[in-house]
Amino acid sequence: MPDLSDAELRDRLTAALGIVRWVDAVAAHAPYASVEQLQRIGRDEATPLSAAELDEAVSHHPRIGEKAQQTGTSATLSAGEQGGLGDADARIDADIAAGNAAYEERFGRVFLIRAAGRSRAEVLAELTRRLESSPQAESDEAAEQLRQIMELRLATLFADGKGIS
């Protein structure tokens, strides 16, 4: 199987975690022996994230419960991740929308959570819990959620084996 070009590798990495510094650092380690090694290096390079990098990465994510405004691989991945939240529930969806607004007012950025493997009710419970966090604790939690999303996306984006060896 042919390897990816540098541009294709960087496009996939950007879809996993949209931080230019991170993409450069992870691409510099290529090739990888496995997706697991790629995930490990990805996590190492994403720990810690600066406040500016957190904002940079979050700007690539739609609000939970909403469709992405952008197009491309990251938007497609977001739609799939949020699609797993289960059937729409008008009450929970309205509570999430209100929570999103309160979160953005309190923390100045979009609420971010790894949606994969969670229900709408679980997302709402986490949103409600995290609204009570201190700004620093919430920044730390948002960064951890980004790292979890990145690891899942790397597994999806590199499942074909291209670009890792």
From TrEMBL:
Gene3D superfamilies: Oxo-4-hydroxy-4-carboxy-5-ureidoimidazoline decarboxylase (1.10.3330.10)
Entry-linked InterPro entries: OHCU_decarboxylase (IPR018020), OHCU_decarboxylase-2 (IPR017595), OHCU_decarboxylase_sf (IPR036778)
Enzyme class: lyase
Record carries keyword Ribonucleoprotein: no
Spans annotated as Disordered: 62-84
UniProt pathway: Purine metabolism; urate degradation; (S)-allantoin from urate: step 3/3
Residues covered by the Oxo-4-hydroxy-4-carboxy-5-ureidoimidazoline decarboxylase domain: 3-155
Protein name: 2-oxo-4-hydroxy-4-carboxy-5-ureidoimidazoline decarboxylase
Organism expressing this protein natively: Amnibacterium flavum
Upper lineage: Bacteria, Bacillati, Actinomycetota, Actinomycetes, Micrococcales
